[in-house]
Fold:
Amino acid sequence: MLILVADDDEAVRTATAQILQDEGYEVATARDGRELLHAYRKCEADVVLCDLFMPGKDGIQAIGELLKDFPHAKIIAMSGGGYNGTLNVLQMAQHLGAKKILAKPFRRSALLELIGQVLAGTGTARNEDSIS
Structure:
């Protein structure tokens, strides 16, 4: 199973990739929405884990474009920002078609649970089991 992790924060991207590799997943990474779209077109990952606030092409734009071209893509949107005034960007990503949402920072167990749910096509729509 291939998981594509897109996050502009190198520490988050690297730590998330390591968690997933430790669990036996193959991992590809991207630093922004443009890299995410390019990488997905090359490999069609089983799951995309996408940060929403990234420079250049942000996660909301990338999710919209990805689902336009690949409506079957399984996306987990993640963000540490979450709220921008009265706009909840995690909910916006869900409305665009993200299968699950994950608030950062998150627990390893929450990440792995959501990955499992997305791969199985089960579970609740959101998980905000984050570390306070």
